Amino acid sequence: MNIPLNVDWQQILLHWMNFVILTGGLYFLLYKPVKQFMEKREAHYRELDDQAAGKLREAEELKAAYQAKLDGAEEEIHQARVKAQAAVQQSVEEQMAQARQIIAKAKEEAASSREQIIRESQRELRELTVAAVKKLTVKADTDLFDQFLDLAEGGKPHEEQ
After folding, report:
1. What are the angstrom distances between the C-alpha of 147 and each of 100, 131, 151, 156?
2. How far is CA 156 from the centre of its chain?
3. pLDDT of 87-111, one tens digit each?
4. What is the gyration radius of the CA atoms in the chain, in angstroms?
5. In the predicted model, what is the mean pLDDT of residues 8-37?
6. Is pLDDT of 26 > 80?
7. pTM score over 0.70
8. Is 71 helix (H, G, I), strand (E, B) or coil?
9. 139 near 159, Cβ under 8 Å?
10. Which of 25, 26, 3, 28 is nearest to 12 (CA)?
11. Which helix (H) or strand (E) holds 109?
12. What is the largest CA-CA distance in the chain?
């Protein structure tokens, strides 16, 4: 068989068969295991990514729950402050009312005491007036000028001595 350009079909066929065997062998020995390794690696990283996304969702849920608790606690603190302010205001009002009662009672007692002191001083004044009148009537027998001089000298009147 005379082939132009010295091409041997048998050699081409053998090279082609060697190439197919080599390609098939490399495919089964290298490509398939590398492809499986890459798929496992991709699945592993996809699983890690899914786990991270799940943990991120859990963290966001926890954050939302804690934020809700924090908001609730802040509201409770606000309500407690309002209640405390109301209690303090009520206590102040009660103390003011009690102070007003004490002041009113003290004014009544002062007025009563004042009236009693006035009555007592008027009684004492009457008694002193009566005593002075008695002394004057008793001493009317003596000369008033002599009595004045006796008192000015620091002595007692003659009748009392």
Report:
1. 57, 17, 6, 8
2. 81
3. 999 999 999 999 999 999 999 999 9
4. 63
5. 90
6. yes
7. no
8. helix
9. yes
10. 3
11. helix 32-139
12. 198
Kindly report the CA angle at 51 between 45 and 52, in degrees rounded to 5? 90
How many Å separate Cα 149 from the centre of its chain?
Answer: 84
CA pair distance 158, 137, nearest whole angstrom:
15
If DSSP codes are grouped into helix, strand and coil, which group holds residue 7? coil
| Contact call for residues 142 and 159 (beta carbons, < 8 A) | yes
Residue with tokens 């066929």: 13
Which residues 6+ apart lie within 8 Å of 147 measured at CB?
139, 157, 158
5: left (phi > 0), else alpha (psi -120 to 50), else beta?
A: left
Distance CA 58, CA 13 (A): 64
Give the contacts of 155 (CB within 8 A, at least 6 positions apart).
161
pLDDT tens string 5-17: 677 788 889 999 9
